Amino acid sequence: MLFELDDNFDDTGSGLPVVLVHGHPFDRSMWRPQVEHFSRSHRVIAPDLRGYGANTPASDKTTLDVFAKDIADLMDHLEIDLIVLGGLSMGGQIVMEFARQFPERLLALLLADTFPGAETPVGRVARNDMADRLLREGMGPYAEEVLWKMVAPGNPEAAEHVLRMMKSAPHQGAAAALRGRAERRDYTELLRDISVPTLIAVGSDDEYTPVAEAERMHSLIPGSTLAVIEGAAHMPNLERPAEFNKAFQRLLNTVGA
């Protein structure tokens, strides 16, 4: 089993279980501000995904349904039936896939800096080309190129953390995830059927998933709330943790109530 050892996931605190899914090409440490803050009152679980962090095994291609099943397996391993599930970027797409496969296991959702659409033909080629590049060159050149899109200017601490995660990501796992995301389904119609409390969060300066995309998701999910984190790009949970945590706390309060 992928999560037999405690060194590939954090499980901290007690109370309402909250599972946080990292994006590409990161690891569970991207959720450190949330683990530290919310574990005071909740049980916060943050795993390294298949092929990332301490979970280095990966095939040539890892699709979103495999990642989602891994989260369900972790829940079974920890004997947890119901969770609040959150994810950022690729992690958000994994959350949507989990909602497709296991809607009965959800109490609430956090969808941060993500989007529901299927990949375009051009995008499929680009993701597979990038996967080939990562296998040739490793993560360093890619990480340096995209850092400016990940973190808004003026936040060197967050930028250093993000750059470190990207450079240390196993290139085989990152490439496998890119090939899997190239084949993802369209989750747009699924959003209309989500019936649990949902927070959509996005950085005001995010170029990967602009505010307009978050607003569209907000319009599709009944009763959802939208939080635009000012002064943040693609990683608002790290760039502006206080603001991000405040919005997330409001969602958790609805579940607790």
From TrEMBL:
SUPFAM superfamilies: alpha/beta-Hydrolases. Residues 18-246 form the AB hydrolase-1 domain. Signal peptide: none annotated. It comes from the Bacteria. Coiled coil: none annotated. This is Pimeloyl-ACP methyl ester carboxylesterase. It comes from Kibdelosporangium banguiense.
